[in-house]
From TrEMBL, chain A:
It comes from Natrialba aegyptia DSM 13077. This is Phenylalanine--tRNA ligase beta subunit. Its main location: cytoplasm. Gene3D superfamilies: 3.30.56.10, Bira Bifunctional Protein, Domain 2, Phenylalanyl-trna Synthetase, Chain B, domain 3. It is an enzyme of class 6 (ligase). GO terms for molecular function: ATP binding; magnesium ion binding; phenylalanine-tRNA ligase activity; RNA binding.
UniProtKB/TrEMBL annotation, chain B:
It comes from Natrialba aegyptia DSM 13077. The gene is pheS. Belongs to the class-II aminoacyl-tRNA synthetase family. Phe-tRNA synthetase alpha subunit type 2 subfamily. Binds 2 magnesium ions per tetramer. This is Phenylalanine--tRNA ligase alpha subunit. Its EC number is 6.1.1.20. It is found in: Cytoplasm.
Amino acid sequence: MPTVDIDPDELRELTGHEEKSDEELQEDLFGLGLEFEGRTEDGAFELEFAPDRLDRLSVEGVARSMRYQYGDARGVHVPATNSAEWTIRVDESVPDERPYVTGAVIRDVDLDEESLDSLIQLQEKLHATMGRKRAKGAIGIHDLTMLRGSPATEGNPTIEYVGIDPDGDRFVPLDSDAELTPAEVLEEHDTGRTYADLVSEYERYPAIYDDIGLFSFPPVINGRRTEVSTDSRDLFVEMTGTDQWTIDKMLNIVCYALAARGATLEDVTVEYSDHELVRPDLSTKTKTVPHDRIETILGIDLDPDEVIDLAERSGLDAAKEEGDNDGELVYEFTVPPYRVDVLHPLDIIDDLGRAYGFNELEPKYPDIGTVGGRHERSRLEDATRTQLVGLGFEDLLNFHMINEAENYDRLDLDPDADVYGAGEPATIKEPYSEDFTMLRTWAMPSLLMVLERNTHRAYPQHLAEIGFTAAVDETENIGIDERRHVGAVLANHDAGYEDAKARLQALARRFDVELETPPTEHPTFISGRTAAVVMDDEVVGVIGEVHPKILVEHDLEVPVAAFEFDLAALQ
Amino acid sequence: MQLPAAQVAVLEAANADDATSVDAIAEATDLPPETVTGAVFELEDEGLVAVTERVDETITLTDEGAEYAAGDLPEIRLYEAALASGADDEPVSMGQVIGAAELDGNQVDIALSNYARKGYGQIDSGEITADPDADPDADAEANALSVLADDGDGDGESDSDGELAADEFSTEIRDQLERRGLLELAETTVREITLTDDGVTELMAGLETAETVGQVTPELLTGGEWEDVEFAEYNVEADAEQFEGGRVHILRQTADRVKDVLVGMGFQEMEGPHVDADFWINDSLFMPQDHPARTHWDRFALERPTHIDELPAELVERVERAHREGVGEDGEGYHSPWDEDFARALALRGHTTSLSTRYLSGREIGEIEPPARFFSVEKVYRNDTLDPTHLLEFFQIEGWVMAEDLSVRDLMGTFEEFYAQFGIEDIQFKPHYNPYTEPSFELFGTHPTTGELVEIGNSGIFREEMLEPLGVECDVMAWGLALERLLMLMYGFEDIRDIHGTLCDLELLRETEVTY
């Protein structure tokens, strides 16, 4: 789960609750769903957060939520914005893969080390979450005084979002002294290498220009010229991405954080070829929720005034209204522009429940009657397992993932061979390791691996598994035939075919299936001591003594008799 | 007096003045020590011998201890290498000294952790210094090891395996070496007997050996001889040869227990494919396609086959609409891409909620009418880091309840009932976020033995954006929990890999205590 670092002193200052001890703060934070994980080297709280309330990715947002929780703030607050002076013009050349941009101007910021760190953290956390590691949205923050905008329209200063040839221009990126082209940045600069995959396939690379030249290479890195420091007073925030809504919301979260520190927000005009936007978009939205639904989900009776109080304590506004049905009480809730998680009226009810305190609710067992029962396949599995255990087998539980060497080669099996256990493997695209590249086609390899790992343990080792197997089968909808096999091995100094056959016979008898074992050839077993398992006239498995070559391969010094067959044959 | 042969032999070998040990008698009489012990107790009961017991402590070098006794302790090797590198003058790079000392593997850690402790010098920021005044020849631990190793051919107080009585050197050094795993302490009980006056009297009066029979045979039974014979006594206290027999796997047993509890609570079992289309695993759960959990980092996508043949077209359309536009008048969708090709892509299921969506869609066993309860305890697959508490494959307990109106209180009540069956009380609910449930809760419970607060599940009420496309018009609440987590809580296992998978240890599976 993601974490965010919060300085408790800053939190006290921003909430206005200097009197709160660290322990009290931790308790209040847990109430918000922010779990205290420990402290950073600097003594800040490391808090684990669920990735819905992305407006709490910095101390400013957490402080806002706490002020609501403490009752110091109520209802929706939208900061004022001054009218636009700057324009971002989107050029036709902009890469098709990353067509969207947004922005805002922030004035009169007062950045000290802490607030600058907090801003950088917020930017990183937004990149990691909503920005999908910058693929969906990337943030660039610049010192406005270092920008010179050419007055393109009506004297407004303008910067341009364009697409350029990978080697089409040069600039000095952050943390570098050299002038590099965007393509060189991807090869030579640490940050460039980290994010190269995002743009390397593009025909044209995204770039942002002012009158002086290229100053930002989104989503990879900004230029050094406009780097923000504690001396910066006015900022230009730009965001590019693959979705306008996403970057607009990220922008709102950054604007709210800076406004909380006393900065003034100023609109920016975003000029696309066919339309124009004014950003940041700090408009609110509304959700209508019936009173009755709030009560059924929370399982309690509430007065309308209580509902409105809970809403305001969650930073929402609420107004009573009459619903579509006669006399139905509904509320229109107003949602502030920094919220990205409210998709449905249910999300409002969750807010109300949190404000009420879910742990205040009295659990009750649902008053409904239903009849329980097991699935037929799972009952068959259990019944078979009980019989196997009665026959002296130790029940095993092995992994379904395996690799080709274990599944085929070490048992001398060819995937294409027409023998039991062979079959085309269902393979995994990006396996965890070389040990787990496919699903096992039979259980025998796993059983032999367990014998191999346990040669120091006491014999006899009579092991069995009722286990999942899979092989490619184009006649199935998922393209795979998934089965359960009954696999068993008997390892002991005197284990032989007859021991295995005796147990198989007992199983067949108990399930009232007719068992025949006509001789067959199978590469895993000794020729002349191998038979097909035929149950009710169908070949369903194999039984025999494991070939010495395979025993030696598995470091075994005792004979092993074994059988494996389809569980379904016992049905 | 008539006595069994073994008792006669023991009496004859014992002495009235000097105590004789059981081992000495066994050697003298050529009887197995356990037979002698058995006979000794019988004779003690008869009052013919007196038995004294004494506990001997013996010390044995471990393989590692023997190795260091033959060579040098790793920290001494490190010190000598450090001296040779001039570390008594100025700090030398640690890597260089370790190389020179020819330490490898865990010997490096051993050397480093004991070096400073024993005053050979300091280790700081990757550099090592050596204290010129330190004297390896005065190293008490090394000296104790060599005493132990030499002892076999030394003072005769110990046998040739290097065992000797425990009081040869300070307990402090002994304990330190034991902590380092260089020696093992063992206690043995030595029994010695002397003849009592009664024993001497009986011996003088002469003893006869009673005729005994070993095995009950068919001849003995049919011929009636059994009436006249005495049966040889067994040492019924002795351990028999170890026998294993069959046994249900401990994790399977835990799964069965969970199934029993859920069936008892009115839940019906589900089943379905392990490899499934992402549509059933994620899309129909209202998981956005660009959700981090759907990237290749967490998911086992299939290389072959790659896509499901067929998805129900109308349902796909409804699910896509929910993703793009949301559900209901005030609903909003995700601002994320949606591609049917991705929905059709096959993967190993990352949760068994894929079974829930299949059942809720009415495509597995027909339309399900409320009220209903369903569950599964089946395997799921996650591309997570393999470690003592995480497996790539593990069992998920999945459950859901469908009814006209369900509240979070019903959800809490259901979990309290369920977990109470496993001795987990005082469940706490932490509000949480899941893409497909709202409200959502993480469940925390108190560990029955350690008292720790541990996460035991994840739960919530399914979102309308998930239920509406599936055609469900009432409330459904659901939860999920890793079975292995429950098992580790119940049994206190520390490494799940010992239990589940081909690395399993048969002995652990054999020895685990039965619970019910």
